[in-house]
Amino acid sequence: MTIRVDAVVLAGGKNSAEMQAATGVENRALVRLGDRTMLEYVIAALREASCIGRIFVVGDVPENTGYERLAPGATLVDNLFAGLRASEEAPRPPIQGGPERPVLAVTSDIPFLTAAAVEDFVGRAAATGADFCYPIIPIDVCLARFPQMRRTTLKVREGTFTGGNVMLLNPRIVIEHRGTILRAYAARKRPLQLGRMLGWGLLARIALAQAFRPGILSVPMLEAAVSRVLGCRATAVVTELAEIGTDVDKPEDVAAARALL
Question: What is the pLDDT of residues 176-188, one digit of tens each?
Answer without folding.
Answer: 888 888 888 887 7
